[in-house]
Amino acid sequence: MRLAMERWHLPDLKQAVARCQERNGQGIECTLTPVGEFAKDTKEAKGLTSEFVAGVRAAEKRDLDAAVGVKLTALGGVFDPEGALERLDTIVNEGERRGVAVELDMEGRGLVDLAMEAAYRHAAAEPPLTLAVQAYLDRTVEDLTRLAATGTRPRLVKGAYLGDVDDFFEVQGRFRSVAARLITSGRPFSVGTHDPDLVAWLLHVGGASKEQVEFAFLTGLADRTKEQMAEQGWRVREYIPFGRDAGAYVERRRRYLATLRALGRMPLP
Q1: Strand, coil or helix: what is 213?
Q2: Which among 38, 122, 188, 259 counts the fewest CB atoms within 10 Å?
Q3: Would you give the distance in Å from CA 38 to the centre of its chain?
Q4: 240 with 261: CB under 8 angstroms?
Q5: CA 35 to CA 40: how far, in whole Å?
Q6: Statement: residue 171 has pLDDT above 80
Q7: Residue 203 clears pLDDT 60, i.e. is over it
Q8: Average pLDDT, stretch 193-197?
Q9: Helix intervals (H) in 186-239
């Protein structure tokens, strides 16, 4: 089928599933996630919870090689933290019943403690929970030490919100430092970056192995790189947002590209 697709997201779950099926055929795993975030009230949070559950069910029904990505703000994490954790319980429990993994995004700095609590709460989840950690936060190394005691798999990203540093090259350095720690630990982990310098470092200097490291990329970026790395036997994942309420998500992507342009840089092709 022809996909009606914006650069950054698909309009609905049906087309996100079709995109995932296409990517799976190329040896690329996927993460399906509704783009709704920052729920304003309990009714909206419950509605978004149903969308995440629908993603889990679709992944099982269509036999997709896919996880479902969740944002705590979509579940009411800002105005009702305990309720958000309970709604996350619903999603993770559905994933366990159906053999579909859940990946938890890390959002603004104020949500980090809640995200860590969610990871502890689901330490025994099977398939294991994945939690994003942000290189631009001072606390990330300590958080990874704490996560090592759980079954949570980290996904290392630079960070797309407000961090403790904002200098591009310092964040690059922090990313390499944290990635080196993870590689030395031997723990499986994922990296989410479109930075050519960091991917080259991981592949040729940092010692990343195909058995330990997964490379996660966004829909709309690094398409050629995804396909080439999958052909080479690397574990590759594409993050597939879907839905109509994509304003905040798309704005972060545009801001990222604007930052690169200001620095005279380009993301991976």
Answers
A1: strand
A2: 259
A3: 17
A4: no
A5: 14
A6: yes
A7: yes
A8: 96
A9: 196-204, 223-231
Name residue, tokens 């050519």: 196
Q: Give the sign of the dihedral formed by CA 41, CA 56, CA 65, CA 190.
A: positive
Query: Domain span at residue 93?
Result: 13-262
What tokens were used for 111?
A: 């949500």
Query: Is 39 contained in some domain?
Result: yes
Which residues on neighbouring strands pair with residue 236, listed in sequence order?
215
| Structural element, H or E, at residue 222 | none
Q: Which tokens go with 75?
A: 């579940």
- Cα dihedral across residues 137, 154, 5, 267: positive or negative: positive
Amino acid (1-letter code) at residue 158:
K
Whole-angstrom distance, CA of residue 132 vs CA of residue 128: 13
- How far is Cα 88 from Cα 67, in angstroms, rounded to an integer? 14
Residue 220 phi/psi, 5-degree rounding, is 95, -5
Percent of the chain with pLDDT over 70: 98
126 within some domain: yes
Within-domain flag for 6: no
Local structure of 132: helix, strand or coil: strand
Number of domains composing the chain = 1
Please, are residues 29 and 235 in contact by the beta-carbon 8 Å criterion?
yes
